Please model this.
Amino acid sequence: MARIRLQSVGKRYPNGFSALENLSLEIEDKAFVVLLGPSGCGKSTTLNLIAGLEDVTSGALYFDEQIMNVVPAHRRDVAMVFQSYALYPHKSVYENIAFGLRMRGHPAADIDRRVKDAARRLELEALLDRRPHQLSGGQRQRVALGRALVRQPAVFLMDEPLSNLDATLRIAMRAEIKQLHQTMQTTFVYVTHDQAEALTLADQIVVMRDGVIQQIGSPEEIYDRPRNTFVASFLGNPPINYLEGMLTEEGEALCFQRGSLSLVLPHALALRLKGQAGRSVKLGLRAEEVDEHSVPRPGETLHGRVSSVLPVGSDQYLGFEAEGKLLFFRVGRDLRHREGENVALSVNVNRLQIFDSGTGDSLLWSGNGA
Ligand SMILES: Nc1ncnc2c1ncn2[C@@H]1O[C@H](COP(=O)(O)OP(=O)(O)O)[C@@H](O)[C@H]1O
Ligand SMILES: [Mg+2]
Model:
């Protein structure tokens, strides 16, 4: 078993660049944790520190209670899968999968059993004699997974393993990786810049930006209760919409006001925003949280003009001009409107986000599980 703990970890590269500062993170045994963030935010650096491919320059890295800072990579009981597969081109699939075990001096019979077991699990049995160039991208990535799997490591580390695959295959492989985690019962740490992948795979998502953790939580927490506008914008497609405005009191109710728009905040939100009337805020409205009702409800209605209609199969994207802003929504295909039409949309006020207009911090966020 392996619980991984990073305690105020810093990583400064030899050229002086500081990629991580004071990063603290606990990864539970058997968890599936996804490090998510834009290119250059420090995901691979964090993974490489756990793998032992890079040295921690400050702070401490633990596996369970053991400090790992100076333990070399090959003594860490981790296996890593890379985006580039990193297969040996002149070796067969069988030998690629077996290689790590051979290097560690496993007996031939044990190697054979493990390779065949992994091949069965990953549906590679018919391909064991082939060379990597005779395989599709998806099959190559399966071989790379197989090579990690036969090691039976305590921790699987995966750095964007599906990024080279086409969209359909990527979705199929996500399901396989998730299944693999369930049957292996080991810790997975998985790096991606793809928010949909993170939401699909993770028990816990760690959102990173410029070497700093922005939020840690379950996919639901990260999506429904983002800690700031960075996290809110990074997840969701099309991205969340923002409207600057003000919190106002209307009798008993707390409202979000901008121009002619007045949204009555539901009781649960109003409770969290007690005493904040008069404050300038940024409203966050997710693309999928509008709909059309035959009788628009007061306090939940957004008037505007359809500026573009983009069908995407089961859904459509609407460009929508309202209150001097261009917003993007995702609605069902049954909503029939043309460019230029004036429309009243119902807003799902239960899912509104409210951020400080200066810092971008959520005014609704109060820690995980809140
Ligand atoms: N060997 C290195 N030397 C100097 N800077 C590096 C090195 N490797 C990565 N970096 C820098 O560290 C930052 C984080 O990189 P990385 O962890 O690869 O990001 P990510 O995987 O999130 O895209 C980037 O700004 C990158 O340019
Ligand atoms: Mg990377």
User: Anything to note?
Assistant: Residues 13, 15, 17, 19, 37, 39-45 surround adenosine-5'-diphosphate (ligand 1) (CB under 6 Å). The CA atoms of residues 138 and 165 lie 6 Å apart. The first strand starts at residue 4 and ends at 12. The mean pLDDT is 94.
